[in-house]
Write the structure tokens for this entry.
Amino acid sequence: MYECPHCEKQTIRASRKLMAGKATPAICPQCGGKSYPDIKSALTGLVVLNLVGLGIAVPAVLLDTLWLLSGVFVLAVVSAKIFVLNKPMTKVG
Ligand SMILES: [Zn+2]
């Protein structure tokens, strides 16, 4: 569970936080407050992450090691989710 920025209680489910956006905020079951993860800073992290991933992916393709490539892909997806989850929720309204 993740902290609601309105009542500061651990009420936001991980799945809800991942799906939440500015247009579709997560609604706190405790206080009804709306919030979403700060994607802008998460995206900055993602760009850095993708550059690192690309640095591994290119030699993986050249060396024909597809298992490494799929490993990089899984790692990118997992770390993207962790990155979003680690961001505090931003209040809406
Ligand atoms: Zn709340």
User: Anything to note?
Assistant: The chain has a mean pLDDT of 82.
